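Appendix C: a fully annotated inverse folding record. The material below is reproduced so that readers can follow the format used throughout the book. The structure is listed first as tokens, followed by the designed sequence.
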């Protein structure tokens, strides 16, 4: 049985007060999900502090492929681990489109996270025009293949995937539960080609305009194991409602 994960990606938003507000909004919420809060780097140590004695865990938005050295502005997996971070996003579409992260760069970051025992959340997804051209799975498979080339299929046994159609991110237009389910099932099938056990246990999150009103329908799909939530994770009460839908 796969456990749900609901992860809140704050992007370049939030502050110390939001960490406390989220902790308070989530206290006592019944859920079957592991809840991961993903604030900007500078808040990671205090997030770990504020979430001590709660079920909330902390993730980062990015990681360097290097362990240490002359890489000004970068943060390594070892440093993330020191802050108490358990997850890291790799390949978020904003990193791919705004910062030129290719499938190969993303795969390197995936490796860097696993090297220090941090679970990568690998984000994959297509643009609107790629979907229109019938290329959705080809785009996703290229991202998955780049990772498999470096870590083999076994690497997916210690990772989480997030299917995030780019056209749904931050637009208020989520994929329908049926559309998302179809892609999640295809992703699982792709993994099963290589290892059925890993495919069966792999948590695949949906991301793209998840909100209190659509979370339950999405999470009730058989291959959707929770959500990666952007904008709606910045509103503590709404985020708590989303978390409560994972049941
Ligand atoms: C995201 O940033 O990963 C995301 C899914 O954003 P939003 O929920 O705002 O669409």
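Designed amino acids, in order:
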């Amino acid at each position: 049985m796969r456990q749900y994960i609901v992860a809140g990606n704050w992007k370049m938003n939030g502050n110390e007060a939001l960490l406390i507000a989220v902790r308070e909004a989530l206290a006592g919420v019944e859920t079957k999900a592991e809840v991961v809060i993903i604030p900007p780097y500078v808040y990671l140590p205090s997030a770990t502090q504020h979430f001590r004695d709660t079920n909330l865990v902390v993730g980062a938005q990015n990681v360097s492929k290097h362990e240490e050295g002359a890489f000004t502005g970068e943060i390594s997996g070892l440093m993330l681990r020191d802050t108490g971070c358990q997850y890291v996003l790799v390949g978020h579409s904003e990193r791919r489109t705004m910062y030129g992260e290719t499938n190969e760069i993303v795969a390197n970051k995936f490796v860097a996270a696993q090297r220090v025992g941090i679970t990568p959340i690998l984000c994959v997804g297509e643009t609107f025009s790629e979907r229109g051209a019938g290329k959705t799975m080809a785009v996703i498979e290229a991202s998955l293949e780049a990772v498999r080339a470096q870590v083999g299929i076994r690497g997916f046994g210690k990772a989480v995937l997030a299917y995030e159609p780019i056209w749904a991110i931050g637009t208020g237009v989520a994929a329908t539960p049926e559309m998302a389910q179809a892609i999640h099932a295809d992703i699982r099938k792709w993994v099963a080609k290589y290892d059925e056990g890993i495919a069966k246990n792999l948590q695949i999150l949906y991301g793209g305009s998840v909100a209190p009103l659509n979370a339950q329908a999405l999470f009730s799909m058989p291959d959707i194991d929770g959500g990666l939530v952007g904008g709606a994770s910045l509103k503590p009460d709404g985020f708590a409602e989303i978390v409560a839908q994972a049941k």
